[in-house]
Amino acid sequence: MDAMTIYQNMYDRTDAELEGMSAFELGYPMPVERGGRKLERAFVLGSNCGDSRPYAWLEADAQTGEVLRYVWCAQEDIVDGVPIDAVIDRTLSEEIDVFDFLGLRAQLLAAYEDVRKGGDIGAYAALFARIVPKGLLPYYKGLAPDFYARLEAAGVQ
Amino acid sequence: MSFLEKMDQNMEQADAAKKSPFEEIMRSLERPAGREIIGPVNEKVELLPITELKNIPDCPNAITRGNPFKLSELVDYKQGDAIWTVQGNCGLVSSRNLLALSGKRQVSEAFITKYAIEKNLCANAPFMPASERGGTTKETREVLLRELGLKVQNWESGDPTVDKNRIANALDQGYRGIMSINCGVLWNKPQFLSTTADGRLRSNHVITLLSAVRDGSTGEVKGFFICDSGTGEKCRYVTADLLMKSFNARNAVVQMTTKPMKGVNA
């Protein structure tokens, strides 16, 4: 199944878990493989109240798109030793106008689909480095260590 | 004492408080000779008195109706400082402000937050961080306000009749309103964007509307004064263009009183 459909399923599930009452943003999807099964993961973070860290994450089947798990970080975290109310640095490394950012975000998701189909990771990694704040990198690494290693090899630091 | 009994007690105290400093402020805002009548013959509209403004960017002849600076003395402009486990309560603080600006109730952030939690009218899942607790929807805000004595009408983003002119016209007449918007756009900070999966903006913050700013020569709506509890600005000028861009988001809505609220800034 294509990444966008899976991402949409994750979004709908998060909205349902939060009863539509919380403003949230989904991190970008990341692939993982567990026991030979291909999965997609994304974390959930707040979007309106300071530089808060991710507080939940989801896991979906990459073949069917079904969301398998919605997990609160307070119960099962993706990083070690960071309090759930911790403040992290979520400023971008460069100033980007919000509407330009939305365009880059769309490009990133399209590039991710290419990577899933076996395309080169370079374009994706370059966009990822531009629009992902450094403070969130450990969370992406915790979410999908193997894929993150590929990003590091492609220049994401 | 039950929660509702405490609420009643709070209401009584608030009513008593209204008769002293709060009412005094309201009286001080009144200008007896300042009203005028405009509009179609069959729809007489009373407007608030004009206040001339200085230092409005790109608008040397700026005016507003009512006095947003005095009005802003009635608002709570900092969210999340009453109950430390609930900090994402912009919608609750804005609702509290709407009650105050409407002359209905003077309730505290702590009171309205506890009330919303008690009635399950805000986000409060046990594993949520404090920054995400207190979130609301337009529906829960509408219920909350109604239960606290104030009816509102919902003007949805995407409705072509909801534009800067309609909002400004209402504020000019003394209607009071709050507005849910996308704060990433309002603050021009991508890290505060909230988007749907396919990249459309989503409402993620609520602000309090104080007044509209017009070019005094042409009547064109140039901007608005708002209270933003997310940034702690109690009377910020924002251009109409920027505010309406931030309003162009899924679930964004203006929640306006159903009638002009006479007595406050009238």
Topology at a glance:
The complex is a heterodimer of chains A (157) and B (266).
Chain A: H1 3-17, E1 24-26, E2 30-34, E3 37-46, E4 56-61, E5 67-72, H2 98-116, H3 122-131, H4 137-143, H5 145-153
Antiparallel strand pairs in A: 1-3, 2-3, 3-4, 4-5
Chain B: H1 3-29, E1 36-38, E2 45-47, E3 50-52, E4 62-65, H2 68-71, H3 90-101, H4 109-118, H5 138-147, E5 152-156, H6 164-173, E6 177-181, H7 183-186, E7 205-215, E8 221-228, E9 233-239, H8 240-247, E10 253-257
Antiparallel strand pairs in B: 1-2, 3-4, 4-7, 5-10, 6-7, 6-10, 7-8, 8-9
Helix pairs in contact in B: 3-4
Describe this structure in words.
The complex is a heterodimer of chains A (157) and B (266). With 157 residues, chain A is an alpha+beta fold. Chain A has one domain. Helix content of chain A is 38%, strand content 19%. In chain A, strands 1, 2, 3, 4 and 5 form a five-stranded antiparallel β-sheet that branches. In chain A, a hairpin with a 5-residue loop joins strand 4 and strand 5. Chain A starts with a helix and ends with a helix. The mean pLDDT of chain A is 95. Chain B has 266 residues and is α+β, with helices and mostly antiparallel strands. Chain B has a single domain, classed as Cysteine proteinases (Cathepsin B, Chain A). Chain B is built from eight helices and ten strands. In chain B, the strands form two sheets. In chain B, strands 3, 4, 5, 6, 7, 8, 9 and 10 form an eight-stranded antiparallel β-sheet that branches. Chain B has a two-stranded antiparallel sheet with strand order 1-2. Chain B starts with a helix and ends in a 9-residue tail after the last strand. About 11% of the residues of chain B have low confidence. The interface between A and B is large, with 45 and 39 residues.
